[in-house]
Design a protein that fits this description.
The protein is mainly alpha-helical and 397 residues long. The protein has helices spanning 12-43, 59-65, 68-80, 88-111, 113-116, 119-124, 128-137, 141-153, 159-167, 184-187, 192-208, 212-231, 237-250, 256-263, 266-275, 280-290, 297-306, 313-323, 336-352, 357-396. It folds into 4 domains: 39-48 and 58-111, no CATH class; 117-190, no CATH class; 198-282, no CATH class; 296-397. It starts with 11 loop residues before the first helix and ends with a helix.
């Protein structure tokens, strides 16, 4: 190849050929690049034709299509040009805005439930467990009010939903509630027993809000209903425990033994003890004396441990709630494993207690009880096996 010098001249025809070649190549490349960018934008839903371009921008459209001004510019390009001109910098701007909208949506959904809440989904699509979880996460009281009204107006407000709303820590202004919680029988479709349960929940809510006067008013107004429901065994231990907690703390009309005799139920007597903050020793002795003929051996030894001076009563009450000591029968076949587990837990609790003479004696008594219990269960199982074998032999005959 000859070197090019100042004396060498390129013919005019050659220059024209090269000019046309590079022009066509560059135009083809740009056209392919524009088509590729357009296809990418369409795949990301950044460009989507609309039937009416003269509309009010909304959060949903901004999230889906990008900012309104940019969508409008893109639509004009689609109308006037067969292939829109989307340069690299503009495409980058749209993508950044798209990401910002996503991040804003995530932030708003976690920090401002009032704006992002989908009431149709709450009412018609969520399961009860999903709905309860959602209500617990709500941080805006107005949203809680809206949910209450929504479900009540659609006749779907039930005790579980109302419980989650009431116990939500952001439900503070009870007097501003759109539904009068003191007149639920006339404003909702709740049953009579559910209405009473809500009043019991309000005792706890008043305590959380530090409203002792409201607690006293509630008890004076509803105590007869509460006691009637307890006598009829229509309240589970959760609600009954709340009642006794506040009765002992705010009402002094009757003693614990008076209530024990009034209800006359060993389950309620144990729940009274679980709920009490004071007079634990007196209540324990009352149970041992008043229910002496009903208590089984494991319940008796449990209450004897509760009388120990240094025992951790809080842990012991947790064991009572966990194992439902009021209904635990160690002689029942279905309760054997549970009874044995409780014995083990009681031994661990005593080992952690200051080793006084009383504690050491109780540990020895509990060890003897465990051995006798194991031997008794062994003999019972052998007897059960013998009876089963006899029945099997008879069936074969």
């Amino acid at each position: 190849m000859l070197p090019v010098t100042s004396n060498n001249k390129i013919p005019t025809t050659t220059l024209k050929f090269l000019s046309r070649f590079f022009w066509n190549y560059n135009s083809k490349f740009k056209k392919e690049q524009k088509i590729t960018e357009l296809e990418l934008a369409e795949a990301l839903n950044l460009i989507k034709p609309q039937q009416n371009l003269h509309h009010k921008p909304s959060i949903i459209k901004s999230f889906k299509d990008g900012p309104a001004n940019e969508v409008y510019k893109i639509k004009n390009n689609l109308i006037h040009d067969s292939i829109p001109s989307i340069n690299k910098s503009k495409n980058k701007h749209i993508s950044n805005q798209f990401i910002q909208n996503i991040l804003f949506g995530i932030k708003s959904s976690s920090s401002n439930k009032l704006e992002s809440i989908n009431y149709h989904q709450l009412l018609n699509e969520m399961t009860l467990s999903e709905l309860r979880y959602f209500i617990r996460s709500v941080t805006d009281e107005k949203t809680l009010f809206n949910i209450m009204v929504l479900f009540n107006s659609n006749h779907k407000l039930n005790l579980k939903i109302l419980t989650e709303i009431i116990l939500n820590k952001n439900f503070i202004h009870i007097a501003r509630s759109p539904i009068n919680l003191l007149n639920l029988e006339n404003e909702t479709n709740l049953s009579q027993i559910d209405v009473i349960k809500v009043q019991i929940l309000l005792l706890k809510k008043y305590q959380d809000l530090k409203l002792p006067i409201n607690i006293i008013k509630n008890l004076k107004l509803n105590i007869n209903n509460y006691l009637t429901m307890i006598k009829q065994s229509k309240l589970n231990s959760f609600y009954e425990r709340i009642i006794w907690r506040f009765v002992y703390e705010y009402l002094f009309q009757f003693s614990e033994l008076d209530y024990m005799k009034m209800i006359n139920n060993i389950q309620s007597s144990f729940i009274m003890w679980e709920a009490s903050y004071r007079n634990n020793t007196r209540i324990t002795n009352d149970i041992l004396s008043y229910h002496s003929k009903e208590l089984n051996s494991l319940q008796t030894i449990f209450l004897q441990i509760a009388l120990l001076k240094d025992v951790n009563l809080s842990n012991l009450k947790n064991l009572s709630i966990k194992y439902k000591i009021y209904q635990l029968d160690p002689n029942n076949k279905s309760n054997r494993n549970i009874s044995y587990a409780l014995i083990t837990e009681l031994e661990k609790l005593l080992i952690k207690t200051n080793q006084s003479q009383e504690v050491s004696q109780m540990l020895e008594n509990l060890a003897i009880f465990r051995i006798n219990y194991i031997l008794n269960m062994y003999n019972i199982q052998n007897e059960e096996i013998r009876i089963d074998n006899e029945h099997l032999m008879i069936d074969r005959l």
